[in-house]
Amino acid sequence: MDRTGLATLAERLRAAGLTVIGSTLGPYRGTVYEGYDTESGQAARREVNAWLLGDAHPFDAVVDVAAAVADPAEPERVRAL
Questions:
Q1: Which end of the chain is more exposed for a tag (fewer CB within 10 A), N or C?
Q2: Positions of the chain with pLDDT under 70
Q3: Are 57 and 24 in contact (CB under 8 A)?
Q4: Which letter does DSSP use for residue 33 in this model?
């Protein structure tokens, strides 16, 4: 996973005097969009989220959207309302 673009963006925003907040990628298992929900896509989402929730990301803070909207029984799906 190439993180260079996000790191560059964070640096530019911070240089402009802004606080930089990242966000995890929310779950999308079972989406209605054809070809979007793939095993490689899910693996990439998990990898990105693990990086964002670790200590090596370039952001001032990270909001865990995935945890906020995930179904506790099936974390790769959005919780039903």
A1: C
A2: none
A3: no
A4: S
- 44 Cβ contact partners less than 8 Å away, ≥ 6 residues apart: 1
Q: Is-contact 58 10, C-beta < 8 A? A: yes
Strands (E), the chain: 21-23, 61-63, 70-71, 74-78
Confirm whether pTM is higher than 0.85. yes
Segment (H or E) for 65: helix 65-69
In the block, tokens 């995930």 appear at 70
Only one residue has tokens 């079972």, namely 30
What SS3 state is found at 37?
A: coil
